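Colleagues,

Please find the record for the two-part complex below.
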Amino acid sequence: MKHVKILKIGTLKDVKGRGCGECQTSCQSACKTSCTVGNQKCKRR
Amino acid sequence: MIHKFEKDGKFYVLDVESLSFFEVDAPAYELLEEDHLKEPKGLGDEYKQAHKELKTLIDQGLLYTPALEVPVRERALKALCLHMAHDCNLSCRYCFAGQGTYGTGGIMDIETAKKAIDLVSKTPRRSVEIDFFGGEPLLNLEAIKEVVAYCEGIDKDFHFTLTTNGVLLDKDADWIDETMDNVVLSVDGRRQVNDRMRKTKSGGGSYDVIMPKFKDFVKNRDKDYYVRATFTRKNLDFSEDVKHLAGEGFRHLSCEPVVTQDPELAIREEDLDKIKDQYDEIARLVEEDELDFFHFNIDLDAGPCLQKLVSGCGAGVDYLAVAPDGKLYPCHQFVGEDEFVIGNVDEGITNPALQELFYNAVLGNKEGCSECWNKYFCSGGCHAAAYHKNGDVLKPDALFCEMQKKRTENALTLLNFD
């Protein structure tokens, strides 16, 4: 493609088998005062 | 829905519902509206060609992807913030916890802590997280050791985090290093910035007390740590503080907006442009020095699943804070507020109506979130920030939203796509 460069094909819709709830809750990494869920890690990946 | 933005002369597009991410040229950028692709009527060949390419991506399901409805995931308590001490050996001006006391004071005894561990150990989850928090948790280090020993006898995968001001970090540093999966070290950056806010009990600066201990602690550490700074409107040039900390040898950094009602320190809307510039500057530092800056640390491959992202932070349901007197709160930022007592370590949840409020404080129920492009990065934002700003956990603090959006844009452009 000349006008568009695909940097990343998202996998957010890959929901099958996910949602196990084993990941870290979101206030536990470094912030404690603001919510940053998107930068948590998935335990299964 | 898409979100498009420009950074350093490049044009970027995020497909919000799939998190596909693109770099485009100027004609393509111009054709992309938030909710539809413009027709190139009356425009030149470049636009027509760009339109054709974008249309192909839409047909492939990579742009303007419709929202996928997933239920919030099954929720279960699996994390505790143990307030080991409502006391502190520093006296920070901006402390949201009333100089560490939360207005109550008190030290958590081991029996209370064990009851809390018993409560969370009933979880159906395999992984359990325990945060040792305060005040200053190291004022109660012996109890922390007992809690860890107690957890060793329970068949769960415990993950421990300690947040400390560092004053006592030289005592048993090896044990802390080995035991804690993550350690959050609080210092604000440049000496004068830190010492203006983070004072000793006698009113002196804390920088010279804590920095040697922090440096020594991280020197050989191979587990996680974050050096966590707070910025206020007194240091709206906080990229200089991040730079300073990086220069002192710390690689894992965080810099958070202050949570305070103090009008001299609280971030105002008029500060936003300066703050955004600071995030751009920090992005440059991160790129040059390969730093790990907490808020730029997103991973589109190994990040949270959609079920988690629609469920929000988990406070009040997956995560509870435990005060030294055994009272339970939805999270550490509500501790000491009587109307937010959600239970106690003896009886568990005693205020189901309050838990219901937090159970329903998910992305789809927060004001303005469903229509926001950044929703899958903040998941609806901090309930406490929303409540303390707008009196309602469902009404996010718009100022925090704006900061969060800027951080996300920088985080996306810092990703390595090679």
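The radius of gyration of chain A is 15 Å.

Comments are welcome before we finalize the supplementary table.
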